[in-house]
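On clarity, I found the account of how folds are encoded harder to follow than it need be. For illustration, here is how one protein appears when written out as sequence plus structure tokens:

:::
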Amino acid sequence: MNRLITVLIVAFAIGFTGPGFASKRGVNVEILLEADETILGQDFEYPDGKPKITVALITIPPHAALALHAHPVPLTAVIIQGELVVDYEGIGPIRYREGDSFVEAFNTPHSGRNGGKGMVKLLAVYAGAEGVPNSVSVE
């Protein structure tokens, strides 16, 4: 976990100092994702209120699934390990594999499950606001 925190701090430091700083020091910046819409083609919608960023490392064991839920805030994810299958209500499943990056759908009910034999690890970054949940259960 300390390594992950160190990587995030370095990435943010590089972002704040610009690509010129990185190239002068031999640091490589690899853009994992640039997007102007979600995986389902939706425009971004940021919640009102004081901005709050949440970074989470989510681990899903083999044969496990998440309950049906939706995200009222922008969420970007990177699959660090394994395969994640996300079934979007009314649309169908999309399979994400190790190394894939995506911007998750807004307010669209979906459930994710481990689609492989090993653990799934994903890094999730939520661009939310104080008092606004990152995920909500859908009944």
In short: The two ends are 33 Å apart (CA to CA). The longest helix spans residues 2-17.
